[in-house]
Amino acid sequence: MDLNFTLEESAFRAEVRNFVGEKLPAHIRDKVMNGVHLNRDDHILWQRILHQRGWGGPGWPREFGGPGWTPAEQYIFEEECAAAGAPRLISFGLKMIAPVLMAFGTPQQQQRFLPKIMAGEEWWCQGYSEPGAGSDLASVKTRAVRNGDFYVVNGQKTWTTLGQYADWIFCLVRTDPAAKKQNGISFLLIDMKSPGVTVRPIITLDGAHEVNEVWLEDVKVPAANLIGEENRGWTYAKFLLGHERTNIAGIGIAKRELARLKRIAAAEGRLDDPLFAARVAQVEIDLMALEITNLRVLAAESAAGREKKAPGPEASILKIKGTEIQQAITELMMQAVGAYALPFKQADIGPDYAANLGTGYCNLRKLSIFGGSNEIQKNIISQMILGL
Amino acid sequence: MDFEFTEDQRALEDTVRRFVARDYTFEKRRAIRDSDPGWSREVWQGLADLGVLALNLDEDYGGLGYGPQETGLVMGAFGAGLLLEPYLAAAVIAPALIRRVASANFQEEWLPAIATGAAIVVLAHADARQAPVTEIGGNLSGRKAVVAHGGCADLLLVSARTARGETGLFAVTSGAEGVHLRDYPTLDGQRAADIVLSNAPAMRLDAGTHDATLEAIEAALDIGLAALCAEAVGIMDATVAATTDYLKTRQQFGQPIGRFQALQHRMADMLLHLEQARSMSYIAALHCTDPNRAARRRTLSAAKVTIGQACRFIAQNAVQLHGGMGMTDELILSHWFKRLTAIEMTFGDTDFHLQRFARLSRAA
User: Fold this and answer.
1) Which of A13, A354, A367, B273 could pair with A323 as two cysteines, CB 3.0-4.6 Å apart?
2) CA nearest B144 in A: which residue?
3) pLDDT tens for residues B217-244?
């Protein structure tokens, strides 16, 4: 057993660290380090910087213009980016639709969409959830009817993260209402500028606008935008969800936020309180364990070879523990500043670092809900790992 | 042993519940929250007309002469409706403090005005760490931090370190020279203020005995803490009921999600927290005026620990079980979540009270 990365991997780590240290714009780093929401331009700027270096598609194979990194290298890359305060990559294009296009898209679709994703020229969002289809995703009702060279789409998607920025949406639509649940679903790519697409904001409890409703009314979608075969969309959807779970533990982000928690706690003198210090220690210990668990999953993936396309059910372990740790950190940050966590969106009340801790705590409640709620992840563990 | 409320007490609770249901709908609350002052004088007057502003005052001063149990019933009813008006600060804590500290003249001047809603008086106690409030030559300087409802007060009761190094209590008129109020919304939709005093004119209220003054402030805040616990239980009652309803109606996988055992057990755990919290809120109401300081504070710490933990568990899981819907500003649920979050942090968080309980238990 050897818990160390190889020499090559360590050299790679140094290379990433140098690059990010040199190229990450200070105004973006400052926002990330202080838990401030990033805007569209921030994300796009960073994506373009990465793209110039040839790292625009960190998980992508060489044949599609990616760097062809191993899972370990991807892990190191994301960890270093997070530690340095780089934005989290927007996954909808890079990690969700891109792998689907690579595996199931036509050459035309691949050429049309992949380069613009990598270059940060087109923003994608996810059209999966509906008001009646959350955890039970296969019950989507949005209807697509084939009419010549087009599909006509009607329905409503919801919880569409950053849909207000999106140029394209990939949607699960029902093409055969007579078929049994999973069998009548297709996977369509829809231009957000199409007539009949309406985006309505959903304001969340922290006052933020991150998610949206997307209404589709008689939207004409070229049949050429169908992925794979009609009525086989569920296969592609599940494939995509597997890829969504790469780096799901968010170890790098958690380490960065733990360091922020310690800075805040120290500034507030809270580490002198043995109970508070113990609570911080507990999170740190959980994170140490999770990092090793994550590396074990990674090693198993690497050993299984690259033909294994998506992480297995072990990703559910990483998702649950990773989100619990991130949520615990926000809870402790809020606790550390006490009453000054309460002023709502008041930058000039209390210490600077306190300004967004209350809203940050509220916002991260989403982590255990989205991307497959933690309850659904536990179902996966019970069924797929334990065979119950 | 008797855990029943009297008919009078039930009638009082019903009155307030009806007021909330009829005159304090979620839509109305939203409009009040988004208004410039963030609270409604009309609602405040309505509460005065109901008599609840006089609840804790002696009958000599136009009050009803009730106590912490009745206050708890009222607070529980306000909790479910998420009242934005300064009931706890101005109708519970301030009168309790004035009664314990101020001269008969001052009481005669201010208590009837509190009862009728004509005057709002708020205690400003917690100092900003960098700038504690001190008294020099009868004037006050320094900063009070995150004073709940400080911005709507006509009169502030300000604790300050006197020239002799003792704690004194002073009355400061909000509009006076040298008083700068920075009013802002808090996470839970209520208002608070940071109050900067620069040589502000002040009137000494207490008799000048350090220990008695501190104890009076503590006693008033302890009564406030018991009331806060009751508010939390009112919110948690509503939260548990709404989440139960949601589990019965929300369909996924061809059945109500309440049919899934994992969620049933979570819901059962929420109920356990709620009932433990309710028990401790009763204890808190019964003991918050206990003259034995150490025993009183030990009991109140126990209550705040149980209730703080329940606030966290119930709030977090109510949102979790509602899924994305629980995260939306549109549902009252997320507003209950935020108020429960704020309550956990108010008057000492769970860890503070856990440690204080341990300390007081060892000393006992």
Assistant:
1) A367
2) A350
3) 999 999 999 999 999 999 999 999 999 9
